[in-house]
Write a structure and sequence with these properties.
The complex is a heterodimer of chains A (337) and B (526). With 337 residues, chain A is of the alpha/beta class. In chain A, 36% of the residues lie in helices and 29% in strands. Chain A has helices at residues 7-24, 49-59, 112-122, 136-139, 144-150, 164-176, 184-187, 190-199, 203-208, 226-241, 303-311, 318-331; strands spanning 31-33, 37-44, 65-73, 80-89, 97-108, 129-133, 153-156, 180-183, 212-219, 247-252, 261-268, 273-280, 284-289, 292-297. The longest helix of chain A is centred in the N-terminal third of the chain and has 18 residues, at 7-24. Chain A starts with 6 loop residues before the first helix and ends in a 6-residue tail after the last helix. Chain B has 526 residues and is an alpha/beta fold. In chain B, the strands form four sheets. An eight-stranded mixed β-sheet of chain B has the order 8-12-13-7-14-15-16-17, with helices on both faces. A six-stranded parallel β-sheet of chain B has the order 3-2-1-4-5-6, sandwiched between helices. Chain B is globular. Residues 1-6 of chain B have low confidence and may be disordered. The chains are: A alpha/beta (337), B alpha/beta (526).
Amino acid sequence: MGGTIAPDRILHEMADLWVSLGKQSEGDAGVLRACSMTLVVAAEESDDVTAIGETLAALMPEHPSRAIVIRFRAEDRRTLTARVFAQCWMPFGHRQQICCEQIEITAADASVPDLAAVVLPLTVPDLPVVLWCRSPRLFHLPAFPQMAAIAQKVVLDSGAFGEPAGILKEMIEALAVGRSIADLSWTRLTRWRELIARIFENRAQLANLPGVSEVRISSCSKSPPVEALYMAAWLMDGLEKIGAHPRLRFNSAAGVASGELNRVDLVARDLASIASIGLVEGHAAEVRVGGWVNRAVLPRPTDYALMREELSIPGRDAVFERTLAAAARLAAGETRP
Amino acid sequence: MLPVLRRPVQERELRAILNYMSLENPFQDPLRFERQVPECALAIFGANGDLTKRKLLPALYRLAYERRLSAGFAVLGLSRTAMSDEQFREKMRASVKEFLEDSPFDDDIWTAFAQGLFYMAGDVHEAALYPALDARLKEIEGQRHTGGNVLFYLSTQPSQYIPIAQGLGAANAGKGKGWRRIVVEKPFGHDLTSAQELSAELHKVFSESEVYRIDHYLGKETVQNILAFRFGNGIFEPLWSRNYVNHVQITAAESIGVEGRGAYYQEAGSLRDMIQNHLLQILATVAMEPSATFRPDSVRDERSKLLRSIRIMKPEEVLVDTVSGQYGPASIGGEDVPGFRQELGVNSDAQTDTYAAVTFFVDNWRWAGVPFYLRSGKRLPKRVTEIAIQFNAAPLAIFNGNESNVAPNLLILRIQPEEGISLKFLSKRPGTGMKLRPVSMDFNYGSSFGERSPTAYETLLLDAIIGDATLYTRQDMVEANWAVVDAIQHVWDNTKFDFPNYAAGTWGPKAADDMLARRGHVWRQP
């Protein structure tokens, strides 16, 4: 195990890997190499490497990529090590094996300034680079912006950063310098938002929307967690578009994981409910609209489901960026987003 | 619902009404959300038939599984067989379990989905059926909150299309509180005149924008991918014309025979059954001009323009540019296979074409002079549908003494099976000397993306519910198709063919090879 790594050697090892995979494959079906992006995963060494591997393996069929997993070790000595292997699968009913490359790099914190120069030549030419940062500590390392500069999109999970105001502000700053940012805490709300949007596809329900006078958002937290802030900002923005200016109320609820959204209510002036969605029995949602109750499955999304959604959006997401700005204002104590 | 005002409208009320009319759902996020599906009831005529059991219900269940249907989505099955709602649900459950492809069957999802399944028995020729149907739909609307939206689906014998349209019209069931649409399965008539009659009857009840003529080939993921391939990439467009394309071959081959549908097929034939609809639509997709937008009528306008540019053959051209075939008995893999005339329900002197090959020309600036060879047949060696675009050879062959250097560049768009795209080109053989050999660069659609592709019926049903007619056939397209095919069929109907003229398990009659050979071309072996 050496203290440095040479990108040329890794690229050479990858070329050898393809030759050996080709030789191993039976008959003339061969191996199909698939790649639509470079996915760089920045994780702590203590992070569950098996879970990361499983998530990447699940992502590969839909988003075949060269995966570069960098595991960071809090260490002052400059050390970098790397290994190369392939993720292969055989689609059901097909003879041909499909493989994607994976590079695993272990880096000491002290080596972070060296990393960008290592990772850059390892990215696949002409294809997008996505950086998934799994740890708040890494996001705040001084050399992290160099790494982020390689990527067209940086994915993080603000829910893991504790107090929301700071990270929301940092994300806005990153957007301001032209970087595309995605937040898995926002991605977690997609299904909630979709359920809400679906209610108002019905024109009769849509007609009630300008009458919303209060928006209530409940979560299991003393102060609103980032998911609640996003939901509030998004709802208020939508209502504003149709001329409604409701009050916003955050409530604290029990019984769900900390930071998780529990219930959303849209209430009319006469206090009658226009629509409400609440978690029941674990991860089912009860949707109440005008006396009609319906249930939908609302599981807490896995890392795979969240990343799958984010990798499907190669460009910027205007709705998220608008919501992020509004959520930051709410987190900063402004009463309206 | 808007109130009915029987007095002069005040300005404030008027503003409220106008606001309501223009109000759009402010919570939509098309980047992340699946396409929003409105509540509706789907009324299937012929609910006890094969298509419903094998295709429609499995597709609907799959959409429910993917959470693509609205919570109040309902199906009302209609057929002559007496059955309760519960019996219908049980029957459909068994069908879905049997015919669901590459998907798991989940009891909980089925239970929730089945709550929206209803049934009523009735004869489509009985006038009393339609007011009862309307009443049942209203009842379902109250129960399931379908908003009065109804999609009628004609999954019956084609002879019942007009009586159903008339019945719906008489009961005023074609109009209602929400939207009303009707899906019609092919064949859309058996010639131009009957197609126009069918459209005229449908239009008495539904406007053209409410009529969805389904061609399931257009719903196939790989047919849609032709549009993505052509109009999402910049590099192919400059090559896509008479300047570089030598000719195009479109093949739809089936290895099976008529499989118990002899009586129907005897009246239809390959030209009407496949070329008139599926293959001409594929030709249009391959050859159409880019549309300005990807809106339903933009795309359909371009398809329609292309179909109207296909040269209509004169009788003497039909004799040289078309080939009709019928399979005879053969032994395939040790099994004796009957000829078409030996199939159940087929006359012993039937003149039906089980194979058709046609050379079409598209008379526009892009394609003038480029032959489009279309062929379709039953009992051919394998099941395959593909498009082969053969490009002109290099203008100068500098690698002399090498047989392979005449192999043409081919772009193959495979529709089924093994959906994908291949580009064949010449490469230097490893070693000394300049010896070339053809190689294939393959993109395999199914395996490059591991995700399951929706079936054609999933795509098309969802489109009809949403109101997206891009992949449906419009009246002018149907009529253009028939105009082209009628000219051929008329000559064939007045010709006595010496059938059978190809053995089951072969690539069709020799005359089809001769047809291409006259222009120096050969059929590709898929």
